[in-house]
Amino acid sequence: MKKTIYILIFVVIMFGCSNNKVTKTESFRLRYEKGVELIEKEKYFQAVDHFTFVIYNSPGSEIADDAQFYLAECHYHLKEYLIAIDEYDRLLRRWPSSSFSEEAKFKIGKTFEELSPIYERDQSNTNNAITAYQSFIDQYPESKFRKDAEKSIKKMRYKLAMKIYDAGKLYMVLREWKAAIITFQTIIEEYYDTKIIDNTYLEMASCYNKMNDKSNMIKSLNEIDAKKILTAKDKIRYRTLMDKIK
């Protein structure tokens, strides 16, 4: 009789545990689906709680990496960019084989790009964006996001070039022609593929003109594609310098 009672108790306990386990699994799934629903409604702040619940209470589940990616996305859309970068990076570290790894890697670059300020300010995050995008391209050379990454790298490089260009222009205001030339030379060596390159050669030619260095002025002018000079005023300066060659 006692043996029968023990068996019944054991069955009840096992059934209860099994039932609780199913309930928890369903709970994680429901919380995840609720989070996705909130994202679709652009209610990112509310969605954060649901994805966080799934990640910390069911880290080994098949939806944990999905929840991690969407958690990062929520912070991105909330413009909490530093937190978003940490969350994307956490996905890459904890679930490197996730189907979201490629996009998360790309989004790290995109998030640093969001943090990149106007070119007059500190450009640390601009450099971080370039590094992140390049790392993404190296790892996923065939990615559908590659063209966007390359376009952003070009945009970030132009911003870095403009910061140097402004420094060179400042030296010109101070009539420090040699210092200006050295500064502009950095653009030619490191940012030759940016759209500011023709204007850079124009400024160098102007500096050489001020220094009465006709030979180097001519060399600089010969590098210029006049159609790509940015402003009408600069085109007039270009034609004025070219007239001195004749």
Describe the structure.
With 246 residues, the protein is an all-alpha fold. The protein has 3 domains: 69 residues, Serine Threonine Protein Phosphatase 5, Tetratricopeptide repeat, CATH 1.25.40; 79 residues; 52 residues. 78% of the residues lie in helices and 0% in strands. The longest helix has 39 residues. The chain is elongated. The relative contact order is 0.05.
Q: Count structural domains.
A: 3
Computed structural class = mainly alpha
What characteristic shape results from the CA principal axes?
elongated
Q: Largest sheet at a glance?
A: none
CA distance, first residue to last residue = 118 Å
DSSP, total strands? 0
User: How would you spell out the order of helices and strands?
Assistant: HHHHHHHHHHH
Count helical runs: 11
Radius of gyration: 29 Å
Report the β-strand fraction as a percent range. Answer: under 5%
State mean pLDDT (0 to 100 scale): 90
Low-confidence stretches: 2-22
Helix content estimate:
over 70%
